[in-house]
Amino acid sequence: MMIQTFTRTGWRAAWLVVFAPVLAPIGFAHAAGAPEIPPQEVRIIGESGDVAKRKKPASEVEKYCLNIADKAQDARYALEQKQLTELETEIGKQIDALEAKRKDYQEWLAERNRFLDGASTIIVDIYAKMKADAAAAQLAQIDRDSAASLIARLKSRQASDILSAMPPATAAEITNLIVQKTSAGGSMDEKQVAESKS
Fold this sequence. Notes:
71% of the residues lie in helices and 2% in strands. It is mainly α. The longest helix is centred in the middle third of the chain and has 58 residues, at 60-117. It is rod-shaped and about 140 Å long. Residues 186-198 have low confidence and may be disordered. Residues 125-177 form the Magnesium transporter MgtE intracellular domain.
């Protein structure tokens, strides 16, 4: 049996091989007795010429929290952007609906003004001075729009006397036209017109 003897350098080599995994995090240079070199610092000079202090690097927990906070903030911004886009679309639809209603109202108002202006002042004065039964007989013979326009411009008492002297079907048609042309909500759809005729 042969016993090997280790020299001084042999023991060091064996010692390094055995303890290398343990000493790896510390560093071989420090384990081997090399002098410790302080960490190098970078000095940052501010605008005033003074050395600016650097913030210490954040711990792993702080870095993790900051990364999560950034992602959460990005998600929150994305959600808010999506909600704003949806609101903008909804408001646009409501504006379009209001514009359509405004256009309908303006058309109705123009039609109403044309209707009321259709009967000249002179003709209205003539029918206002006539007896109700004579005016009713004449108005029953002209087209319904003109008759309705004339009656609408008369005083209420005169208009009711003339309409009561007319045949009921004719008076109903003229009254229906007056309601259509002068009431807000004015134009009736075809179904309502058909129901009113039946």
